[in-house]
Design a protein that fits this description.
It is built from eleven helices and ten strands. With about 425 residues, the protein is α+β, with helices and mostly antiparallel strands. The strands form three sheets. The protein has a four-stranded antiparallel β-sheet, with no helix packed on it. A hairpin with a 2-residue loop joins strand 2 and strand 3. Helix 3 runs antiparallel to helix 8. It is globular and about 65 Å long. Bound molecules: flavin-adenine dinucleotide. The site of flavin-adenine dinucleotide has 20 residues, from strand 4 and helix 11. The site of flavin-adenine dinucleotide (FAD) has 20 residues, from strand 4 and helix 11.
């Protein structure tokens, strides 16, 4: 059997196989990082032989290995299949993982958003049923919040869920649903009571994406890929025990998930090596022979400092959250600074690339990778709430500035203009 990391709540051990049998060692976060480095280099170093496997199979196999090696769900509670370790261990892993393009991006919505929300709000039965298989990559999750007329104003959504005995019948449409075409489950936000103000009549459900009436249509973007989908919900029957949180309190469930999403999207480890970062730009500068130039060194140093600050902020928030502290709206600060960090990285690249940034040959892998990272960068300022929305939240909830004026305040959803309700 291979060497592996074993964890119990609060501590990690390394089980090493020697010719004398197995030996166990306690691991500090630093040693955990070293174990992660060794594992990642063995698992992802060199050219992985993926044979005939497609990207989803590769992702599943990697996530299962990551889980079995003790590096998935690092801060998830041990009782629900996680490793039960502190944010310092996650930080140590993230620093090592930043050197690789982990092939498990398809699980991100589950690992970073739906999974932590299940931990916070799920019943024991839900946690038992979903968490371990989510962490091990056996079931992919998606988030069904946004609609054609409800993005920034997600509480204005129109998808309806109406009671039918113990079940609910769902009717409506979602959009921008990341990786729904692969998903087995989705966290669905729907309106269950239009007679109260819009934030009060929502409920979150765990949706079986294979249920009759669920139609997923991929949306192709300019890169030729289909990261998003439209999801049509036509008389979809959802059982009563699929409510995540409380009936009518879906806004709390949504804020819980958005809080996790904002810390995750803001984190410099989000997107791994596909993201513009100090590491990728340092390599680029070296390959251009420009790493010694004063202006390049200054840009890289500034980028390193900002990246480090954002990374420490997200790690601190993650640890406070794990300890049960109230983060208030501080995840919005992490999200906004993470998005601005990418803007800074794009500017640093443009400056160091100079005229060579204008055109390159299609087989120049280095440039092609950076080009796709630059194209992906603005999306971080949109997903999980745009930069403008984060600024509004920070202004109102942290700085105490006046709330935005609203003609809807105090009115039921059905009364508000454009609700589509009779
Ligand atoms: C990469 C990516 C992945 C995504 N994945 C998912 C997913 O899996 N599931 C899901 O449900 N959604 C997903 N989304 C959708 C995302 O949540 C929405 O795009 C986002 O909330 C913005 O909504 P919108 O696109 O409708 O823009 P709009 O809300 O129409 O906003 C348009 C512009 O108006 C500005 N604006 C709007 N309201 C205000 C205001 N009050 N004050 C100041 N400015 C304002 C916005 O900042 C923006 O610039 C994803 C988006 C991206 C980019």
């Amino acid at each position: 059997m291979a060497d592996r990391v074993l964890t119990t709540t609060g501590s990690a051990r390394y089980e090493r196989n020697t010719c004398m049998g197995t030996r166990e060692e306690q691991l500090s976060p630093e040693e955990f990082g070293i174990a992660a480095r060794r594992w990642l280099s063995e698992r992802l170093g060199g050219q992985p032989d993926t044979g005939d496997l497609d990207a989803i199979q590769v992702a599943r196999s990697f996530q299962a290995d990551l889980y079995d090696a003790g590096f998935a769900g690092i801060t998830f509670p041990a009782e629900w299949g996680g490793q039960g370790l502190s944010a310092a261990y996650q930080q140590a892993f993230d620093e090592e993982a930043a050197h690789y393009e982990l092939p498990n991006f398809v699980f991100l919505v589950g690992l970073a958003m739906c999974g932590p929300t299940l931990v916070d709000l799920g019943t024991a039965t839900q946690k038992r049923r979903y968490l371990r298989s989510l962490l091990r990559g056996e079931e992919i999750w998606s988030q069904l919040f946004s609609e054609p007329s409800a993005g920034s104003d997600v509480a204005g959504l129109r998808t309806r869920a109406v009671r039918d005995g113990d079940d609910w019948i769902v009717q409506g449409q979602k959009v921008w649903t990341s990786r729904a075409q692969y998903a087995r489950f989705g966290a669905l936000l729907a309106r269950t009571d239009p007679s109260v103000p819009k934030h009060q009549g929502l409920t979150m459900f765990i949706l079986d994406m294979h249920a009759p009436g669920v139609t997923v249509r991929p949306l192709t973007v300019m890169s030729g890929r289909s990261p998003f989908n439209e999801v049509f919900l036509d008389e979809v029957r959802v059982p009563g025990d699929a409510v995540l949180g409380a009936v009518g309190d879906g806004w709390t469930s949504a804020l819980t998930m958005l809080d996790h999403e904002r810390r995750s999207v803001g984190s410099p480890s989000y997107g791994g090596d596909t993201r513009l970062s100090f590491n990728s730009l340092k390599l680029f500068a070296e390959s251009m022979g420009a790493a010694g130039e004063a202006s390049v060194r200054r840009s890289l140093t500034e980028l390193f400092a900002t990246e480090r600050a954002v990374s420490l902020l997200t790690a601190r928030l993650r640890e406070e959250k794990r300890e049960g502290q109230d983060l208030g709206a501080r995840s919005s600060v992490a999200k906004l600074t993470g998005a601005l960090l990418l803007r800074q990285a794009t500017a640093a690249f443009t400056e160091m690339a100079g005229p060579s940034d204008l055109a390159w040959s299609a087989d120049d892998e280095r440039h092609v990778a950076i080009d796709s990272a630059i194209k992906a960068a603005p999306s971080v300022g949109i997903a999980g709430g745009t930069n403008e929305i984060q600024r509004n939240i920070i202004g109102e909830r942290i700085l105490g500035l006046p709330r935005e004026p609203s003609v809807e305040r105090g009115k039921s959803f059905a009364e508000t203009q454009g609700s589509g309700e009779e």
